[in-house]
Amino acid sequence: MISRLYRLLRAIKSLLPPARQVHPLSAREKYATRNEEKSAIVRQLYEKEKIEFQEVEEISPTSAQDLYAQGAAVFIDVRTPEEQMVSMLPGAVTEKDLEDTPSILQGKTAVAYCTIGYRSGLYAADKSREGIRVLNAQGGILAWVLSGGKVYHNGTETKQVHVYGEEWNYLPDGYEPIMF
């Protein structure tokens, strides 16, 4: 009886289309997929915010990284001092640093950033009205780390970034969101 049932099941199975092979994503592929999704969300958030400073020149995270690697960029962190204590882009200066020593920008491109690009966009718009060219970093520090950029705390690389809450937590895997 069991052998007849087995033969019948095999016959039915032979009539069905072959099962599709499902290859599980590797850890690297899962990481890349999640980060691409997070990057898309960060881009959407930034696009929604930039309506208030559409005239501001902007720069992508990868272009900003290239400019910095060439020694041609100065990053201006317009976040609060508390946020800056968590982490900053490499070589970044504060608004106060720039006010005290405007020569920091000598021969360099000024790139302002914040968490998503809203505050830095407003800052760049203000500076533009003063006749100072400041580019806005698209997607802020979130887009920066999602594109592979590093952040630092007291000169040491860190994986901590301030975000305002879970609704802003689009950090890459391996990063720790700091919220206060």
Spell out the key features of this protein.
Oxidized Rhodanese, domain 1, two-stranded antiparallel ribbon, 7 helices, 9 strands, elongated
Description:
With 180 residues, the chain is of the alpha/beta class. The chain has a single domain (32-178), classed as Oxidized Rhodanese, domain 1. It is built from seven helices and nine strands; from the N terminus they run H-H-E-H-E-H-E-H-E-H-E-H-E-E-E-E. The chain has helices at 2-15, 27-49, 61-69, 81-86, 95-100, 118-129, 140-146, and strands at residues 58-59, 73-77, 93-94, 109-113, 134-137, 151-153, 156-158, 160-162, 176-178. The strands form three sheets. Strands 1-5-4-2-3 form a five-stranded parallel beta sheet, sandwiched between helices. Strand 4 (109-113), helix 6 (118-129) and strand 5 form a beta-alpha-beta unit. Helix 2 packs antiparallel against helix 7. It is elongated and about 90 Å long.
